[in-house]
Amino acid sequence: MGIMYLDEDAANFKEWASGPFFVSVRGRMRQESRNLQKLLGPVITAMGYELVGIEYLPRPRNALLRIYIDKEGGVDLDDCQRVSYQVSGVLDVEDPIPGRYTLEISSPGLDRPLFTAEHFARFAGCRVKVRLNVPLEGRRNFTGVLQGVKAGNVVLDDDGREICLPLDRVEQARLVPDV
């Protein structure tokens, strides 16, 4: 049972990611999501919903702002409409996103996205798919049973092999629904 750490490829990551395009776009997307989380989180929470996470995808003509919400018993279309109405008002007044964008309010669904260390801890024991922003031993995509978070790493069990993936290098993670 071996343990892999992304740090083995840290030198390759620094060399590969040294271009300004990669750094500025990735950093801007994460910073925008954090800023939007601070702005919209209190509004959504005050309405009785959990703000699961925000995905901001800038595009040349029309960016996409996707907000995942949840509540006890699940979310329906009426919930999404209520949150959309309130969030739209805040976005119109504060105007944090330059240019045109599409606002999408969604439930997390069966393939729930995982955004935070708390999410990874909460869903320990579930099967997940994780995509990294840089390869680990030639791979960016991993699937396994989530063991939780340990020392800043997402820990997966991949058929008896423990894999440690640094949380700050996770690009996307989702539950794999039992079908």
Strand order of the largest sheet: 1-8-7-6-5-9
Largest sheet, described in full? 6 strands, mixed
What is the CATH C-level name of the largest domain?
Alpha Beta
Q: What is the C-alpha radius of gyration, as a whole number of Å? A: 18 Å
Helical run tally: 4
The count of strands amounts to 9
Query: What is the domain tally?
Result: 2
Encode the helix/strand succession as letters. EHHEEHEHEEEEE
The SS-based structural class is alpha+beta
Distance between the termini: 29 Å
CATH architecture of the largest domain: 2-Layer Sandwich
Please, could you describe this protein's structure?
It is a single chain. With 179 residues, the protein is of the alpha+beta class. It folds into two domains: 87 residues, RimP-like superfamily, N-terminal (GMP Synthetase, Chain A, domain 3, 2-Layer Sandwich); 62 residues, SH3 type barrels. It contains four helices and nine strands, in the order E-H-H-E-E-H-E-H-E-E-E-E-E. A six-stranded mixed β-sheet has the order 1-8-7-6-5-9. The longest helix has 27 residues. It is globular and about 50 Å long.
